[in-house]
Amino acid sequence: MARLTRVRRAIALATRHRVGGLYEGVHSSLHAGRSMEFNDLREYVRGDDVAEIDWKASARSGGSLLVKRHVAERRTTVMVAVATGRSLAGMASPTETKLDVAIQVAGAFGSLATQHGDYVGLIWCDGHDIRAARPSTRDVELERMLGHIEAASTADRPEGDLGRLLEVTATTLRRRGIVVLVCDDVDIDADLESRLRRLVVQHEVMVITLADLDPTDPAIADSPVVGLDDQRELLKELRRDPRLREAIEADRTERAARRTTALSRLAISSLHLSGTDGLVPAVLSLVRSHRHAR
């Protein structure tokens, strides 16, 4: 349970604050449209959603904050779809691989789901095949899912097929649920947008993209940079060329703008990550904004 333990520790650190902060209520469901039935009242505890406070009952209680407890008529399924493959073995920052970030993202969403009693499942690229892990509420199964992501993202694995991953994801969940897509810093073309549109019709969708390490970053100026595909080292002299740095930055900016425009058209909540520093607070913020947008 080592991977899941690290994620849970990060979540605990991110939520250790006074009520009223940005990420309050992070233990509530990822799903905003769930049908709920009122059950009873209990005292407020740190991490509860302030929207669930019953202010009238709290006033009558003589000072204690009371929150409403509900019984869910059904559980939601959160399906994490990860475009695993060789590219995730690449670096996202000078100290972390994209795989490190992907595991943290999957673990964070999975933990938020299971802690609320929802199901979490995984769909990933296994070579040229797409595989799926049955949704579960058990921590041991979530840990096993994180292991699948790690095993399928080594440097000797073929690239994953993102289009096929989206196609299978759209047909795997029979009932409306939440799909969290974790993929590279992709450029969303017409075909990919079409596949995402189909997914949005069937499910709530969030997209997490993972940044590529900038080979011209001064922080790695004296370290070798080797391509995953050809294992060739990029010359340090070339990496110090300001024109290359400008070209890389321009390409990233344009790709991000196109992606943001496409995802906005589809009303898809998204997040772009270049490392695990601040990842959990960013995920929690995304979840809250996604819930309030629905």
TrEMBL record:
It holds the Pfam family DUF58. It comes from the Bacteria. This is DUF58 domain-containing protein. Residues 40-255 form the DUF58 domain. InterPro entries: DUF58.
